Amino acid sequence: MDEKVIISAERLGQTETFTDIAPETLGAIIDHSEISSLHTGDAVFRAGEAFKSAVFILYDGAVEMQRADGETVRQHPGAILGLSNYLDNAPYTATAFCLDACTVLVLPAAAVKQLEAQHPPFANLLNRIIAERIRTRSAAAHMISGAMARPVRSAMKSPLSISRSDITLREAFEIMQSRKIGSLGVMTQRNELFGILTCSGLSEALAIKGAHPDDSVMQAACEVPYTISPDTPLWRAEEIQQNRGVKYLVVVENEAPVGMISQTDILRALITQQNTFLEQVKEVNSLEHLRRLYENIYEVARMARESNRLATQAVRMTSEAHLAIQRRCVELTLDEMQPRPARPFALLVMGSGGRREMLLNPDQDNGIVLSDAPGAVSEEEREWFAGFCDKLNINLDKIGYVLCRGDIMARNPMFQKTLSEWRSQITHLTAYPNQKAARWSNIVFDFDTLYGDENLTYALRDHVLKALQARRQLLEFMVEDDAEGRPPLGWFNRLITADEKGLKGTVDIKRNGLRIIADAARIYALSAGISSTSTRERLQALVRQGILSTELVDSASAAYEELLDMLLAHQIERRQARQVPDKLIRPDTLSPRVRSVLRVSMRAVKRFQDQLQGQFGRSAF
Q1: Helix pair 169-179, 199-207: axis angle to 10 deg
Q2: Residues near 545 by Cβ (< 8 Å), separated by ≥ 6?
Q3: Parallel/antiparallel/unpaired status of strands 183-187 and 43-45
Q4: Helix (H/G/I), strand (E/B), else coil: 496
Q5: Is 285 inside a domain boundary?
């Protein structure tokens, strides 16, 4: 038996799916599996059959997946079949036929759960497969146009700064300093590109790898060059940078390097497109004009979505437009309130605004932090700031940002405090946590400066992080608040939202998907002392700190991107039809491909939420 397991583990490990899985884990998979030998034409499972409480690993032979929409996919050894049904315990929606004699490992669902808990690489493998399925099924659904459809040659730096391969690290540093560049192409004696030297690579070689300034760049600090053609669209260049975790790509034409494209170059191309709208906002001198710009936000969102591969970037651009309008509203309100006290203050934007994740019709979530200096706040100052906050919330409502139903606004005395008062309130919340405090925290703790003194915002954020490090029980209540929303898995033919009575057959994409990931990212980030507020940046930081696996974050990020893109497209469509943008999507109106993306994305959301609740349950505190 042992010999069979060793041989089988070695062969399974040679498949593309399991190539990075350790022999110990492969052996455990085989030990927990039953062997099933099937003949040509046999079905592993059929569409419409109830879930067999197992996943199937194709060990030998070939299987064809026949989906309801007519699409067929050939599966090779190493393929994991029935994974989607394991994730949501739903009947099969495809039929898996054997194209020849097949050997299948039948892994019971209970064993899959056990393996995920005991062998993290196996759980990571499943997360990686989920992320790949989300991206594969959504790839054809979103066509990129605008700035990001332009060729790389339109944004690259040319020519490529190069040096000989025999120079030292010291000489390379001097070249980079004198030319004021952050990267240098290193050429061999045969005039071939050997690698790329970057400032970070040079620093790592000297500070960590023990290199000497007189060592050759060939030996110490050259990164593998990733190349791209000058006619490649910018969105594809950005995708390569994201997938490979690199900041620079070498642009090659006729086998010769002709330039360099960086993440900054791509960002600059996007910013240029948005500047026109932001300049218009700066020139506005009336609330009526701001209202007209607000009503045109959907055009900003439409162009941003068409120009970006990632929905988070399109939403970031939309958010910057919203914040520019709100900032101008603050300035116009201050003009009405002259003269104003000399006391510094910071207006905070909270919730989706603080994360830079605002869609087409966000409500108001804001507050104000007053400086404790100079001296105690006088009664006259209190009255002035109270009047200013009240007028500001009214003016924001006039231009389109409706008043918060939960009254999380600067005019509410609870959100109108000095820095020391804010600190005392946060300290009290962490010392005496409850469900109400958790709901409050899940909105307020995503804050950033809308207008005013950034130092006050930094000081408040620093206190939040320190208070939560000292007393962490509030995080547990925040997890329970997150658990109120659940992905609607397995119910796509009879959906009903919990808070929208009478709207049958709809999915609340935000409440049952996006908010769950944003909440989980917030809780993990606050627990780790991470100061970033955007969901995407928090997830990336959690991977860098080793708190979450790359694969888990990759599947959650892929789901977040697709759900966000789906919701943004839905809202743009409703706005163009002169309807009020909402967060409710009817799966039965979606194409089979998009509906499949929705279903797989929700499975990824559930796995991420399960991980959070497992780590931050009561036993963890």
Answers
A1: 150
A2: 528, 530
A3: unpaired
A4: strand
A5: no
Based on the domain organization, do 57 and 167 belong to the same domain? Answer: no
State residue 290 phi and psi, 5-degree precision: -60, -35
Q: How confident is the model at residue 201 (pLDDT cuts 50, 70, 90)?
A: confident
For residue 61, report the phi and psi dihedrals to the nearest 5 degrees.
100, -170
CA distances from 94 to 44, 82, 83, 141, 600 (A): 10, 9, 12, 21, 14
What is the C-alpha to C-alpha distance for residues 108 and 28, in angstroms, rounded to an integer? Answer: 13
> How remote is the C-alpha of 227 from its chain's centroid?
26
Answer whether 409's CB lies under 8 Å from 364's CB: yes
Structure tokens that stand for 85 in this block: 């049904």
Q: Strands 447-452 and 416-418: what pairing?
A: unpaired
Q: For helices 297-307 and 287-295, what crossing angle results, to 10°?
A: 40
DSSP line for 150-167: SBGGGT-BSSPPEEETT-
For 58-79, the pLDDT digits (tens) are: 999 999 999 876 778 899 999 9
Q: Residue type at 299?
A: E
pLDDT of 145 reads 59
Q: Give dist(CA 357, CA 360) in Å, integer.
A: 10
With 0-12 / 13-18 / 19 or more C-beta atoms within 10 angstroms meaning exposed / middle / buried, residue 576 is exposed
Q: What is the pLDDT of residues 494-510, one digit of tens each?
A: 333 344 455 567 888 99
**Positive or negative, the Cα torsion across 492, 493, 498, 500?**
positive
User: Do 610 and 552 form a contact (C-beta atoms < 8 A)?
Assistant: no
**Cβ neighbour number for residue 419 with a 10 Å cutoff:** 22
pLDDT at 488: 53
Distance, CA of 201 to CA of 179 (rounded, Å) = 18
Residue 477 β-bridge partners: none
486 or 474, greater pLDDT:
474
* pTM metric for this prediction: 0.78
Tokens of 61: 């032979």
Same domain, 55 and 176: no
Range of 602's domain?
309-620
pLDDT digits (tens, 9 = 90+) for 415-429: 999 999 999 999 999
CATH code, domain with 72:
2.60.120.10
* Token pair belonging to 559: 């789901």
| Rg of the chain on CA atoms, in Å | 27
State whether 166 and 215 are in the same domain: yes
CA contacts within 13 A on the Cβ side of 89: 5
CA angle 335, 337, 339 (to 5 degrees): 90
- Based on the domain organization, do 425 and 542 belong to the same domain? yes
Cβ 468 vs Cβ 474: under 8 Å: yes
Do residues 163 and 202 lie in contact, with contact meaning Cβ atoms separated by under 8 Å? no
What pLDDT, in 10s, does the model give residues 14-65?
Answer: 998 998 899 999 999 999 999 999 999 999 999 999 999 999 999 999 999 9
Taking the C-alpha atoms of residue 420 and residue 159, their distance in angstroms, rounded to an integer, is 54
Same domain, 22 and 151: no
> By percentage, how much of the chain surpasses pLDDT 90?
47
CA dist 64 and 67 (Å) reads 10
Q: pLDDT tens-digit profile of 353-398?
A: 999 999 999 999 999 999 999 889 999 999 999 999 999 999 999 9
458 vs 277: CA distance, rounded Å: 29
| pLDDT per residue as tens digits for the range 122-169 | 999 999 899 888 877 665 455 565 667 788 888 887 777 888 888 888
